[in-house]
């Protein structure tokens, strides 16, 4: 039996080597594609092309007795690596006549990311940090765009210190709240203003499929080139008002971060054995625990600033707290049927999204389980 297995395993190893060689060839072709896209100003992410290609590969796979989900999983992982490598060739510069760009806070994590993307696109970028403010007037005097990428708690103060900018200079911020910073920019600058909120962290390998929220402040035509540039980087732009943005962020950021913090704090106060929890966990709980632990591997001041950035955030958390208490009361009172009825009401609210989320989560859980190494 051992000899039979060794022979078969050797054959599998040979096939794996062929797969590695094929992947290397594919990545080399991707690099050539990236060069063509860079010359012609094409986005690195083409959703229609991706969807059509995946559909064809699924058909071909199933015709050869290979599960369609398998080939799609493999190709999506390959494409993610491809998007990351395509950016190495650089991007077409949409606005080559733009005067230099100043990124205030350009040595911070998110600021560095945008400095790099702008430089890859051929723009001349200067970085301005607080210890270099003595040269601010010189750098800002002839800037074509000023991008503010500083912590939330000082964003509006920094905007207020910018002074007079050239009339045609595009003033942009990257803060995760929008009404306050947008109003501050409109007050300090009479020219074009745009609020951005990248819905991702600075550790992304590529902008492909990443969401950037856009909130127009003034003269949207003057920022069209930047929107096109970010689209070339692969980002998906979502246009909303600053008020709509901040309302959504109470759910997407403040409430979610607080709930995660509270759960992590409870685990710590209970001194739960994390190693035991991991050894006993299902894939879904392991994934949930990973998302909780992920929060505590990052900057606590950032999350404090996000949660405290608006009174509406605290009001939302208070309503969540009250609702949590009402749900707990149902269980404490043994009201099983009332709990089931409440559950069904929420299920009705989610509607078709519940089924969609179930399918998506199954894929995520399968991938998370694949990563587990059980000694």
UniProtKB/TrEMBL annotation:
The protein's name in its UniProt record: T-protein
Pfam families assigned to the protein according to its UniProt record, in alphabetical order: CM_2, PDH_C, PDH_N
Keyword presence, Amino-acid biosynthesis: yes
Keywords: Amino-acid biosynthesis, Aromatic amino acid biosynthesis, Cytoplasm, Isomerase, NAD, Oxidoreductase, Tyrosine biosynthesis
A Gene Ontology cellular-component term: cytoplasm
Organism of derivation: Aeromonas simiae
Chain ranges of the Chorismate mutase domain: 1-90
Protein location: Cytoplasm
Major subcellular site: cytoplasm
Residues in Prephenate/arogenate dehydrogenase domain copies: 99-361
């Amino acid at each position: 039996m051992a000899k039979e297995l060794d022979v078969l395993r050797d054959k599998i190893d040979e096939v794996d080597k062929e797969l590695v060689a094929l992947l290397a060839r594919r990545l080399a072709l991707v690099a050539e594609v990236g060069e063509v896209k860079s010359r012609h100003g094409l986005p690195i992410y083409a959703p229609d092309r991706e969807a059509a290609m995946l559909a064809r590969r699924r058909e071909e796979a199933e015709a050869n007795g290979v599960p369609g989900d398998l080939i799609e999983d493999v190709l999506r992982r390959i494409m993610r690596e491809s998007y990351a490598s395509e950016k190495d060739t650089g991007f077409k510069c949409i606005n080559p006549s733009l005067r230099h760009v100043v990124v205030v806070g350009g040595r911070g994590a998110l600021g560095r990311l945008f400095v790099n993307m702008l430089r890859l696109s051929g723009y001349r970028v200067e970085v301005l940090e607080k210890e270099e403010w003595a040269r601010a007037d010189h750098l800002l005097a002839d800037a074509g765009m000023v991008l503010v990428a500083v912590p939330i708690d000082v964003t509006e103060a920094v905007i207020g210190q910018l002074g007079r900018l050239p009339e045609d200079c595009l003033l942009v911020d990257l803060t995760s709240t929008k009404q306050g910073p947008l109003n501050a920019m409109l007050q300090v600058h009479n020219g074009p203003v745009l609020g951005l909120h990248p819905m991702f962290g600075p550790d992304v390998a590529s902008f492909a499929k990443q969401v950037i929220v856009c909130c127009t402040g003034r003269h949207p035509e003057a920022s069209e080139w930047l929107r096109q540039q970010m689209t070339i980087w692969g980002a998906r732009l979502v246009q909303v008002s600053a008020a709509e943005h901040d309302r959504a962020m109470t759910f997407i950021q403040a409430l979610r971060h607080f709930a995660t913090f509270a759960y992590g704090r409870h685990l710590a106060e209970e001194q739960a054995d994390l190693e035991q929890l991991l050894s006993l966990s299902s894939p879904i709980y392991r994934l949930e625990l990973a998302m909780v632990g992920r929060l505590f591997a990052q900057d606590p001041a950032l999350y404090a600033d996000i949660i405290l950035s608006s009174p509406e955030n605290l009001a939302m958390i208070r309503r969540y707290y009250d609702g949590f208490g009402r749900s707990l009361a149902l269980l404490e009172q043994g009201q099983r049927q009332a709990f089931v009825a409440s559950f069904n009401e929420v299920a009705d609210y989610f509607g078709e999204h519940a089924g969609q989320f179930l399918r998506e989560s199954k894929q995520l859980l399968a991938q998370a389980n694949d990563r587990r190494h059980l000694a």
